[in-house]
Amino acid sequence: MKKLSFNLLITLSLMAAFFSACDDDSPTTGGSTGPADNVIKTGDLIASQTWSNDSIYELSGKVVVPDGITLTIEPGTIIKGQDDDGASASALVVARGGKLMAEGTEADPIIFTSVLDNIEIGQLAGTNLEKEDNKKWGGVIILGR
Questions:
Q1: pLDDT tens digit string along 43-97?
Q2: DSSP strand E in the chain: where?
Q3: Cα 106 to Cα 111: distance, rounded to the nearest angstrom
Q4: CA pair distance 133, 79, nearest whole angstrom
Q5: What is the DSSP secondary structure assignment for residue 45, as one 8-state letter?
Q6: pTM for the whole thing?
Q7: What backbone torsions phi and psi does residue 4 show, to the nearest 5 degrees?
């Protein structure tokens, strides 16, 4: 009886850990909500999706738009790359056959910046970084034909 109860407890614990780790709102591997309600993105997108301007998206490592997947970014959306450089730098990578649909406006630009930037939703610029503050993340890489 003790062995059965112990096994049941282990099984329930593993199931609880599995289901609490699932995130229906983020079809990337490792997606979750981060600091200040930033939506953390990492790994390959597994379905086409739209990033809206009511959230800040934070790139953790490489975020890849693979062949057959479309990433749409709404005007006014802020995307922040985590601070790193070299091979481990965070970046948005659009693979061959992947599609990036992103068209900002003068009033609502799409802003790619660093997590070190204190810019918030609805702002056009943060107040803590200077023009010379660069090389904070990997950038946007488009691998076209």
A1: 999 999 999 999 999 999 999 999 999 999 999 999 999 987 778 889 999 999 9
A2: 32-33, 39-44, 49-51, 56-65, 70-73, 78-81, 91-94, 99-102, 111-114, 139-142
A3: 11
A4: 17
A5: B
A6: 0.73
A7: -65, -45
Which residue type sits at 38? N
How far the first Cα of the chain sits from its last, in Å, is 64
Instruction: Report the DSSP beta bridge partners of residue 73.
Output: 51, 102
**Rg of the chain over CA atoms, in angstroms?**
18
Residue pair 55/37 in contact (Cβ under 8 Å)? The answer is yes
Three-state SS sequence of 12-42: HHHHHHHHHHCCCCCCECCCEECHHHCEEEE
